[in-house]
Give the backbone structure.
Amino acid sequence: MQPTESKNSPFSEADSYSALAPTFSPLYQQIKGLITQSLQSGEWKPGELIPSEMELAARFKVSQGTVRKAIDELSAENLVVRRQGKGTFVATHNEARSQFRFLRLVPDDGERAYPENNIIEVRRLRAPADVARMLELKSGESVVFLKRVQSFSGVPTILEELWLPGAIFKGLTMERLNEYKGPMYALFESEFGTHMIRAQEQIRAVCADQLTAELLVVEPGTPLLSVERVSFTYGDRAVELRRGLYLTSAHHYRNELS
């Protein structure tokens, strides 16, 4: 049933907290869900202008204030971006403001910069049990495994292993990754229709083993920051497992709490 505030509606914004409240979410949350469905289905592509609040209000037969509240939450969750005098746009990882949203390593001195990538390995294999569990796949399902070193100003700083569902990332090859010069999440978005919305991370201190030390050009036993991340797209679907080892001799890991 489409939410509505018209006289013929089975419920209105005013009575959404009535006897039906235990089984129905607030109306603006329902509108938020409908807008999210349109984002997920690709009705509005990343970077595109979505209909105005007035147009959405007419579409869903609700007040403009209800739509505004829904968009406020979508904006806070980085699913859309408001631009003064221009309207509301679907968020995209191609925007400068988004490129550092998932890269939390910050130099102790100087400006933040996007790292240079050295792709070491890309191959398709069957998901190990722990990877399958974290990506909500069946054990043995196809995954794409990617290993890379990221450097800042020529200094190797991050060693990462990525695991991606094979069914989504068909055609992801080392050649394509080497050709692409922008943020990896922007590539995932534009070519594989996968927009990263949020992530969960676990962080701990570790020491570099022999292989890691060689790739990061440090001594074995050097302190590193281990970051394990699961990233999610629409529908809270896990679509990436990333395990990174960070050299923090000239950088720090910055998180913003609110």
Notes: The two ends are 35 Å apart (CA to CA). Confidence is low (pLDDT under 50) at residues 6-21. Residues 96-253 form a domain with the Chorismate lyase fold (CATH 3.40.1410.10).
